[in-house]
Amino acid sequence: MQGKKFGTFAGVFTPSILTILGVIMYMRLGWVVGNAGLIGAIMIIILAHVIAVSTGLSVSSIATDKKIGAGGVYYILSRSMGIPIGGSIGIALYIGTALSIALYLIGFAESFNEYFGFGVTINDLRLTGTIALLSLTCLALISTSVAIKAQFFILAAISISLVAIFFGNSDFQPETIELFSSVDAVPLEVIFAVFFPAVTGFTAGIAMSGDLKDSKKSIPIGTLLAIGTGLVIYILVAIYLALNVSSDVLKTDYNILMKIALFAPAVVAGIWGATLSSALGGILGGPRILQAMSVDNVTPKVFRKGRGKNNEPVNALFLVFLIAEAGVLIGELDVIARIVSMFYLTAYGFINISYFLESWANPDFQPSFKIKSWIGLLGFMACFAVMFKLDMLAMFAAFAIIAGLYFWLQRKEVKLQSNDVWQSVWENVVNKGLKKIDANVDENSNWNPNIILFSGESKHQSYLLQLGKTVSGRTGIVTNFKLILDKKNEKPLKKVDQIVRNDNFAELGIFARQVKVDNIYNGITNIATTYGFSGVEPNTIMMGWPKGLENSTEYSKMTETLLHLDYNLLYLDFDRKKKFGKYKTVDFWWRETDSKNAEMMLNIARFIIASPLWSNTKIRVLFVNNNNINQEIINSKIRKLVEDLRVLVAIEIINNAVEQKPFYNIIEDYSKKTDLTVVGIPNYKIEKQAEFVLKTNQLFESIGSTLLVKAANNFNVLDLNFINNK
């Protein structure tokens, strides 16, 4: 059986407005006006309400899109931005809520002790605050419903006290009305930090989300009505004080409202009612945040247990009591206010950015209460700009704590059934990025590899994957395809089964797919023809060197198609004994026919030396001089080509004009001990493929791991014909 649920007025507006019109209004607003001046105070009130209004609008919009469960702000953030962010901010907000209870009770103790002539030392305030905390905790334990009903009487008391204030008389009339802060006044940053908790009360209603009849209706109406009412009252009281009390008195007398009121006991009742009801709002809302986090396994399970029809969070209430008591023991209202401000500003900043990201990126975000997305962004920037201005060190400390909580929750890997907004954000970023790339195609731009990799399956597969990622560079894309031979191939794999995820691919940052094919070569051709989409078209095919296929017509046809499609081709012959040696030496072999291959090799060189595995490697460019060209001419021209691509290499010219040794024989002589040799594939007629493959196989018998490259037409032609320079 479900317990009693509350409507907009009782469940949201009343707890919110009672927390807003609380200790700051009665005990510190005069101090704010006295130090900041009338215009300064109004600016502080308005700036604080910019954050409150933007956050209220953001949370109201989200509330009309999502089903808001127990936990209020935590529930919203965790369902929008995921458990790690939602949980870390939820914990911060929970602690802030618990400490705000201490803020209200210390304010109550200041007024109570002075009114009855009790001591006003810090220990006296601690004692009174502790007794009040115990009393309110007992009331919350008796019944939430009783506590809610008690708030109606307190609301009436506050209303009467405001009437008494505005119809009062002042014996402290100012000679001149101070519009701005004086030289000896408290800095505006400190004034704002003390005042800001006054506008945080609207979360008291949101925290009751699990106890509302209709949260989607009640949260927007109740929250915005409470914020608007609070803004009007704060400005009116600030103007009244500035016109009727001198700034010197306002700076020093925290109980000035009591002294100028038409009927002082009415103000006393308002102060006590406001401070106690605000504290009660925190006592009711704080445990519900902790209980909701425990239900999601963010915090210990012991706090999820409740009592009665409404599953009231008894265990969580005891922890709130302990944190609030720690705040009471601090004993200084201004210090507690500044701490609470940081916690709330952080939480509000993330509420606003949560709304902005939802409205900007999530196509499924369809709130019935619609506002402009920039409002969330404005609120986010305002929160962190204010935090930076208030206390930069405290801001960084808050970020460090929240970052620590974030990474802890991420490691716990707590998952929810609902999707968070980040997937939509990344999809939107990718979508806009692809459109931008596609609209600005520059054929002469630097090569950014997008490799389709066919690594096969063997115990050496990881080396081909590793090299594929190396030659793709930091920003390149590698997609590995596993081809499953199924000659009947009656039904393809389902889309979800085509995606391959394992730690090896994830560690290297390689995408992986698997598809059924009735023929390996046809499968490669089909993938090369159809895979990819605008903006990030694949431009390179990489696979192992096909030994023993020199007479395969299917392989010849596949190669001819890949060349026709104008792919860059990379074939690796992997030395299973030497592997890549010690990753210390790489040789690039050039000849006159490598005019396009040469530039591609230099790009590969740039990516290789940027890889941690190859960071200490020595790269040589070796050029075979078959025409007795002056070595200085060749060296100078190659040096210039190399410098243009900012690659540091050693250049070696091999004179072959007299001996005329075959190219592959020279490679055998010079690269026998090289860890990786890179050789260009020359232009040849397809009918001569068998001869080329046979000779290449013979070369591979005598040298280590070798990468054969064939550049597509988008690479520049480097002039390697030095005869005209003779």
UniProtKB/TrEMBL annotation:
<feature type="transmembrane region" description="Helical">
    <location>
        <begin position="152"/>
        <end position="170"/>
    </location>
</feature>
<keyword id="KW-0812">Transmembrane</keyword>
<feature type="transmembrane region" description="Helical">
    <location>
        <begin position="393"/>
        <end position="409"/>
    </location>
</feature>
<feature type="transmembrane region" description="Helical">
    <location>
        <begin position="39"/>
        <end position="64"/>
    </location>
</feature>
<feature type="transmembrane region" description="Helical">
    <location>
        <begin position="7"/>
        <end position="27"/>
    </location>
</feature>
<dbReference type="Pfam" id="PF00324">
    <property type="entry name" value="AA_permease"/>
</dbReference>
<dbReference type="InterPro" id="IPR004842">
    <property type="entry name" value="SLC12A_fam"/>
</dbReference>
<protein>
    <submittedName>
        <fullName>Amino acid permease</fullName>
    </submittedName>
</protein>
<feature type="transmembrane region" description="Helical">
    <location>
        <begin position="314"/>
        <end position="330"/>
    </location>
</feature>
<dbReference type="GO" id="GO:0015377">
    <property type="term" value="F:chloride:monoatomic cation symporter activity"/>
</dbReference>
<feature type="domain" description="Amino acid permease/ SLC12A">
    <location>
        <begin position="12"/>
        <end position="410"/>
    </location>
</feature>
<feature type="transmembrane region" description="Helical">
    <location>
        <begin position="221"/>
        <end position="243"/>
    </location>
</feature>
<feature type="transmembrane region" description="Helical">
    <location>
        <begin position="190"/>
        <end position="209"/>
    </location>
</feature>
<keyword id="KW-0472">Membrane</keyword>
<feature type="transmembrane region" description="Helical">
    <location>
        <begin position="369"/>
        <end position="387"/>
    </location>
</feature>
<feature type="transmembrane region" description="Helical">
    <location>
        <begin position="336"/>
        <end position="357"/>
    </location>
</feature>
<feature type="transmembrane region" description="Helical">
    <location>
        <begin position="85"/>
        <end position="107"/>
    </location>
</feature>
<feature type="transmembrane region" description="Helical">
    <location>
        <begin position="263"/>
        <end position="284"/>
    </location>
</feature>
<dbReference type="GO" id="GO:0016020">
    <property type="term" value="C:membrane"/>
</dbReference>
<dbReference type="InterPro" id="IPR004841">
    <property type="entry name" value="AA-permease/SLC12A_dom"/>
</dbReference>
<keyword id="KW-1133">Transmembrane helix</keyword>
<feature type="transmembrane region" description="Helical">
    <location>
        <begin position="127"/>
        <end position="147"/>
    </location>
</feature>
